[in-house]
Amino acid sequence: MINHTVNPRRMTWDDIQRNYPSQWVGLSDVQWNDPTSRDIASAVVSCTGDGNDIYLLYSQHQLDAALFTTLDNDVLTSGVNY
Question: Is 36 exposed, middle or buried, given 0-12, 13-18 or 19+ CB atoms closer than 10 A?
Fold first, then answer.
């Protein structure tokens, strides 16, 4: 199940982790600190939900990234377009 963000706004990665702890997030309009790494400066959270559903949207190029957040700044699993 996908939960689309009602009022999407740009947030830092720290803010995303704080607001969506331990959840799959689908990100759009990603700004990278370093485009050769997974270091996200900020992004718009387009949706949250089941990892399989989020990753499906990512694989269909409807999202820029599909990430699982944790409060300890660890990205457990991700899909990222470079």
Answer: exposed
Contact 46, 5 (CB under 8 A): yes
Question: Which 3 state secondary structure label does DSSP give 50?
Answer: coil
Decide if 2 is inside a domain. no
Its domain, for residue 20, covers 7-77
- β-partners of residue 77 are none
The domain tally of the chain equals 1
Task: Enter the pTM of the model.
Answer: 0.79
Reported confidence tier of residue 71, pLDDT bands at 50, 70, 90: low
Instruction: Write the pLDDT tens digit of every residue in 2-56.
Output: 888 767 899 999 999 999 999 999 999 999 998 787 789 999 999 999 999 999 9
Q: What type of residue is 72?
A: D
